[in-house]
Design a protein that fits this description.
Helix content: over 70%
Distance between the termini: 67 Å
Organism: Dendrobium catenatum
Number of strands: 0
InterPro entries: Reticulon, Reticulon-like
Order of helices and strands: HHHHHHHH
Oligomer: single chain
Shape: extended
Subcellular location: Endoplasmic reticulum membrane
Main location: endoplasmic reticulum
Keywords: Endoplasmic reticulum, Membrane, Transmembrane, Transmembrane helix
């Protein structure tokens, strides 16, 4: 009964709104859109005034599924991986370069043992692709790097020899600003972690 009265109330409100539009508008009746049943349904009010569901706000697809834990295995794997990285780098104070070197040593040892063990178990050895860097690519990278280094050294030489006063003053002022910024950050860091 209450649901029926809500529907009739919504219909009456919709009719009054359209009656106001009909009297104030000079448009013809055939240009006006027809009301559908979906426009009479009450609007869904979501948290923080959102118009779309959270899944659509996050972009939909797999990233949204990960954030909303719809794919529980993948979300747990991401959370576990992030926790392992945090434990390695923060709690154990492991460094990235050390991790890269140890993983390279481990992978090299596994490939070496695998290729030697294949002779005993009559299996084919692992296929390791041969990687060759083209000479022209290496030469182009070296030439562009050499050009940028020479240009930087030339600019520093011009500044140090006194030929470019504007650049000298700009470098000095930027260095001074960075110096004070470093002192400010250092003292903030010192006070936060030593008090």
């Amino acid at each position: 009964m209450a649901e029926r009265s809500e529907e009739t109330l919504l219909e009456k409100i919709a009719e009054k709104i359209h009656a106001v539009h009909d009297s104030s508008s000079s448009d013809s009746d055939d240009e006006k859109p027809k009301l559908s049943d979906s426009s009479l349904k009450p609007k869904i009010y979501r948290l923080f005034g959102r118009e779309k569901p959270v899944h659509q706000v996050l972009g939909g697809g797999k990233p949204a599924d990960l954030f909303l834990w719809r794919d529980k295995k993948a979300s747990a794997a991401v959370l576990g991986g992030a926790t392992a990285i945090w434990v390695l780098f923060e709690l154990m104070e492991y460094h990235l370069l050390t991790l890269v070197c140890h993983s390279l040593i481990l992978s090299l040892a596994v490939l070496f043992l695998w290729s030697n063990a294949t002779t005993f178990i009559n299996k084919s050895p692992p296929h390791i692709p041969q990687v060759i860097i083209p000479e022209d690519l290496a030469v182009n990278i070296a030439l562009s790097l050499r050009f940028e280094i020479n240009r930087s050294i030339s600019a520093l030489r011009d500044i140090a020899s006194g030929r470019d006063l504007k650049a000298f003053l700009a470098v000095c002022s930027c260095s001074k600003c960075l110096f004070f910024r470093g002192i400010y950050i250092h003292t903030k860091f010192f006070y936060v972690f030593n008090i």
